[in-house]
């Protein structure tokens, strides 16, 4: 027989031994059952039926185990867990990486949005700070651009005022 290795739990080995012994006894009884008298065969049949009934009752009373309750024991052997509930802090710790990922994505989106606004402001500042060539003032498109914002109070060349000033010039 094998000796108990440090990685093998003792209860598993004992269960295996009991099972092997039971199989040997059952095989021996099966061989000798033909030579027994009818009274003994009847008593053995009744005992067998009682044992099966007790085994079925024990199986029905035992809690069912799910795949989530499995755990590793020893050297990569798989055993069912004791049915312990997972603590709440472990469940929260499992959600922590998801929360960090979501926070990181939101931070990246905000920083990209801010970078787009900053680069557009730099471009506008650069364009507006450079002096315009004199030909730009005579360009009809530039005048159209200046007249685009009629709601701006600082814009003195709104279309309504321009028409009035043209009418005033023509009447003089």
UniProtKB/TrEMBL annotation:
InterPro entries: DUF3619. It comes from the Bacteria. Pfam families: DUF3619. Residues 161-172 have a biased composition (Basic and acidic residues). Residues 148-158 have a biased composition (Polar residues). Residues 131-172 are annotated as: Disordered. This is DUF3619 family protein. It comes from Roseateles chitinivorans.
